[in-house]
Design brief:
The chain is of the alpha/beta class and about 375 residues long. Strands 3-2-1-4-5-6-7 form a 7-stranded parallel beta sheet, with helices on both faces. The protein has a 6-stranded parallel beta sheet with strand order 10-9-8-11-12-13, sandwiched between helices. α5 runs parallel beside α7. Helices cover about 45% and strands about 15% of the residues. The longest helix has 19 residues. It contains 15 helices and 13 strands.
């Protein structure tokens, strides 16, 4: 069992800093950690660029937030990265946290250097490797080299799936003793609770929810929708999400317009609270090429919806094939079509039972309080 923080440590009010590339990241993925650290008597500091999601402070008035001005998540400009290291170093020296948790690539790489310069302990949380590791090329080689060079400055690496941990070991970035994995960032299973399921519907609705990126498999989703709708009546395909202009894999606006105009999909746009969309859906589909651990799939499972996703890093940890959903090959429209057809061949009761299995798995493995406790235990061993 991991060593817990003892009472003396708690009484001295240990300070933990959470560093991310946006306040949006904190608001959407890290509030469970804030809850856990505060409940354990720690002071919590957040360091992130300020955006509209700073409203989280209304719930956590004791949390100090420091703006991060030099963070540019997609820039490869070394001068900007140097300035980021300087800014983080100054903030760490001023705040003097007992430990820093870094999230996403830039904070992991350059925050680790800053923590070493400031003389504070650091943990890197690898939340997914994204575009750089999906597309082999210069950026992948650069990020791999940067991780390899800066890994020495972290006491631990936490990965959100097993495959990313194995990949870093194979690339000799971090040895096994300093690498652990958890099952994503967790989902509030009380918030994402099952709506009434199992009732008859006029149409079967398959829903894609996420950033509109080709790397999320959205092209395969649309191509599969076109094939299914040409032969099977009473099936709808929904897309929910927004374009990410800063990501090289973002969907071309003309493609999106074409898909909508040709009545292949119905586009809901960006929806802040997706629970009503999930509730109206029969199956959540994410044919992604690679994930940290797909939050939307687990949200669907938590709401007792069957899911279809891909046999790739992160995604495959969410599905027990044929039990709570289906796993299909990445970049394969044909295999996705087969998965959709298998789902359509199920009776309503079988679909309902598949959703119940997903809910059980979500509560047992992916609940955000469970994940927060696991990360707290890891922090306790380092601090």
């Amino acid at each position: 069992m991991p060593k817990k923080l003892n009472n003396n440590n708690i009484n001295t009010k240990k300070t933990i800093a959470l560093v991310a590339n946006s306040t949006w990241n904190i608001y959407n993925f890290r509030l469970n950690l804030i809850d856990k650290f505060l409940s354990e008597g720690m002071d919590v500091v957040v360091i992130a660029p300020v955006d509209e999601y700073l409203t989280y402070k209304e719930k956590y008035p004791s949390v100090r937030h420091f703006s991060l001005r030099t963070m540019d998540r997609d820039s490869t400009n070394p001068i900007k990265d140097f300035l980021l290291v300087l800014e983080l170093t100054r903030k760490y020296k001023k705040i003097r946290p007992d430990i820093v948790l870094h999230f996403t690539n830039k904070p992991n790489i350059f925050g680790g250097v800053a923590a070493w310069l400031a003389g504070v302990k650091s943990i890197a949380v690898v939340t997914g490797l994204g575009y750089a590791f999906i597309h082999n090329g210069f950026i992948k080689r650069l990020i791999s080299w940067l991780y390899r060079f800066t890994a020495r400055f972290h006491q631990k690496f936490i990965f959100e799936n097993i495959e990313d941990r194995k990949l870093f070991a194979s690339l000799q970035i971090v040895e096994g003793a300093r690498a652990v994995s958890v099952k994503g960032c967790g989902v509030d299973t009380a918030w994402f609770h099952p709506y009434p399921n199992g009732q008859s519907r006029d149409k079967t609705i398959f829903t894609f929810i996420g950033r509109l990126l080709y790397d999320k498999g959205i092209r395969e989703f649309v191509e599969a929708a076109k094939i299914i709708k040409s032969t099977i009546p009473n099936v709808d395909f929904w897309i929910v999400g927004e374009l990410d202009a800063e990501n090289p894999a973002t969907v071309d606006k003309d493609d999106l317009i074409k898909w909508v105009e040709e009545d292949i999909v119905y586009y809901h746009g960006f929806v802040k609270d997706v629970r009503s969309i999930i509730a109206q859906s029969d199956c959540i589909v994410l044919p992604s090429y690679r994930e940290g651990l797909p939050r939307i799939i687990v949200e669907g499972m938590s709401m007792a919806k069957p899911v279809i996703t891909t046999q790739t890093a992160g995604c495959e940890e969410t599905v027990d094939d044929n039990i709570n959903g289906y796993l299909v090959a990445i970049k394969s429209t044909g295999d996705l079509v087969n998965g959709l057809k298998k789902f359509l061949s199920l009776t309503e009761d079988q679909q309902h039972q598949m959703g119940i299995a997903g809910r059980t798995k979500a509560c047992k493995e992916f609940d955000d309080k469970l994940i927060a406790s696991e990360i707290y235990d890891i922090v306790s061993m380092v601090i």
